[in-house]
Amino acid sequence: MLTYPLSGSSSELVINVLTMVLTEGKPLDRAYSHNFSGMQYPPAELARITLVTGDILRRLNLYCYLVDIKVEDIERTGSKLLNGWHLFHDLDLPKMEYALQVDSAQFAERLEVAKAQPALWDGCPEWLDELGAAQLGEKWPAERAALATAPKRYIRANSLKGTREELKQRLTKELVATVEVEGVESALEIRSDSALFKTEAFKQGYFEQQDAGSQLVAAAVDAKPGMRVVDACAGAGGKTLHIAAQMQGKGRLLAMDVEQWKLDNLKIRARRAGAHNVETRIIASSKTIKRMKLTADRVLLDVPCSGLGVLKRNPDSKWRDTPERLPVLIELQKDILQSYSRMVKVGGILVYATCSIMPDENRNQVDAFLAANPHFTLLDDELILVSEHGFDGFYLARMERISEV
């Protein structure tokens, strides 16, 4: 956390980002990109700005309650919110022009009230608290609290270019402090406010930024050199590139998605990483899947999900999402699992994964699929809880096809 207040200009930048996210509906990463464009802030100051913005969004309802403002008024009352945030963290107030002041006596009273309301203290909206309690029961309070904490920065060493230890040494020379992550052999945690994407190590493809939990999902695919592997919901391709490294660049790795721009970005990343066995293919219709029936040694289905395991990294989503969206996603997951599983050959392995911690998206989906598809059998599954690992929350299940039908 900060040890001294934000400057006036940095405070205004935080308010601008919050306004874009909360009143204009922009994703947080795009709001950052828009507001940081052309800025000459040093990396450490950008890190401070994102730290404050992220913390406010993770516990937005708490901070709004403490200073008695409404989310929809954030453009007008953002200075009051920033002052309240500084008070909460025992910091001097930032020097902002025309700032709305906080009534310190009222703030103290509301602070005591908030301490007695765990969900509010953890920055959890009512709909999410009800859903989490229903889905996870006694495990939910710990997860709710963990999702209110700041995410750590992780990278994956690209084994196509070198070992984790070699990467660590390279980054040390570029003044980037790292530590190895226990239990995730490809991961390093970043311990300094460094401009990672400006390092020569990044430009030359020695690493990708990827959460340690996400690295565990890709590791579960256990792809071998020479295999035919499909990443059927590849997106921008973080897990695709991890799988390419497992395959040592040998064999065929097909990255598929319904959005061409994501696959275009993946091609750029693959060239930098030296992942020359990656092919991309747009999913234009169900025929794309049918033509690949019973052909793949491995299929990864990192399906669209609620993202409720990655809220500390994407805190803006819990102020947009509603429980009505979850049934639609569950039906989509079911359809993808049923349809795309046809690509797995006999003896091949299907990996189903989400960045959610909710059973309805995870083990319940897998159990329903297995009940309807006895030609698959469950090998193992894992729920990566935020409170237990400190990583983002993920789920993965590995299933083997034991017969054609």
Offer a quick outline of the entry.
With 405 residues, the chain is α/β, with parallel strands linked by helices.
Structure description:
The chain is of the alpha/beta class and 405 residues long. It is 44% helix and 16% strand. It has 18 helices and eleven strands. The strands form two sheets. A seven-stranded mixed beta sheet has the order 7-6-5-8-9-11-10, sandwiched between helices. Helix 14 links the parallel strand 6 and strand 7. The longest helix has 16 residues. The chain is globular and about 70 Å long. The N and C termini lie far apart (56 Å). The mean pLDDT is 95.
Give a quick account of the main beta sheet: strands, pairing sense, barrel closure. Answer: 7 strands, mixed
Total beta strand runs:
11
* Helix-residue proportion: 40-55%
The number of helical segments is 18
User: What is the beta-strand fraction?
Assistant: 15-25%
Helix/sheet category? alpha/beta
Output the helix-strand order.
Answer: HHHHHHHHHEHEEHEHEHEHEHEHEHEHE
Distance between the termini: 56 Å
Inertia-based shape: globular
Low-confidence stretches: none
Strand order of the largest sheet: 7-6-5-8-9-11-10
